[in-house]
């Protein structure tokens, strides 16, 4: 169990550090507009190949963790329900942010526990929650959190009577 958490921690740290650096900005630029990125001097082919290799490495690490916990893994272990659950985790958490799948996994993992008292209605209520997020919040739960934080920063700065940037509000909150 400890090595699994270590692998997850390493992947999270590398993703966070990479996404905030030059490589992360270049990858985001390529994702948004490949032609514009190429015109600005970003190596789009190399960037896409690097993103593919990084995602393959993370997938391999996830496979290693799966095999370590179950002992064996093969095509018989993957069902349609597992694929749907993985896509649901991505959609609910948010695909634009690196923390989205983590938040989605926690929420989708915890949702059946909270809906256990609903009996047969549990799956229907889960579907309603997922559809609500897909229709009304395509950025996922992380998008909701981001909007709430931005709204609260605007509210705090408007109450203080002067316009402050988000970093000023954070510095004031740390004091």
How would you describe this protein?
This protein has 175 residues and is mostly helical. It has two domains: 1-78; 81-175, no CATH class. It has helices spanning 2-20, 22-32, 34-39, 44-70, 80-93, 100-114, 122-136, 140-159, 166-174. Helix 1 (2-20) packs across helix 2, helix 2 (22-32) crosses helix 4 and helix 5 runs parallel beside helix 8 (140-159). It is globular. The protein starts with a helix and ends with a helix. The mean pLDDT is 83.
Query: Multimeric state of these chains?
Result: single chain
Could you spell the SSE succession in H and E letters? Answer: HHHHHHHHH
Backbone structural class: mainly alpha
Average pLDDT reading: 83
Dominant shape: globular
Radius of gyration: 20 Å
Distance between the termini: 38 Å
Number of helices: 9
> What amount of the residues lies in strands?
under 5%
User: What composes the largest sheet?
Assistant: none
How helical, in percent, are the residues?
Answer: over 70%
Low-pLDDT windows of residues: none
Number of domains: 2
Q: State the total count of DSSP E strands.
A: 0
């Amino acid at each position: 169990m400890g090595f699994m958490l270590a692998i997850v921690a390493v992947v999270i740290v590398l993703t966070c550090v990479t996404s905030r650096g030059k490589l992360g900005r270049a990858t985001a630029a390529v994702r948004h507009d490949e032609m514009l990125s190429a015109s600005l001097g970003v190596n789009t082919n190399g960037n896409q190949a690097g993103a593919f290799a990084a995602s393959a490495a993370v997938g391999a690490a996830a496979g290693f963790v799966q095999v370590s916990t179950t002992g064996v893994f093969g095509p018989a272990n993957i069902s349609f329900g597992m694929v749907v659950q993985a896509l649901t985790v991505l959609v609910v958490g948010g695909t634009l942010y690196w923390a989205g799948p983590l938040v989605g996994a926690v929420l989708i993992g915890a949702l059946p526990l909270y809906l256990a008292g609903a009996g047969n209605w549990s799956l229907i209520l889960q579907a309603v929650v997922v559809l609500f997020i897909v229709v009304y919040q395509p950025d996922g739960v992380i998008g909701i959190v981001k909007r709430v934080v931005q709204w609260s920063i605007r509210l705090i700065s408007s109450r203080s009577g002067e316009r402050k940037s988000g970093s000023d509000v954070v510095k004031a909150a740390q004091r």
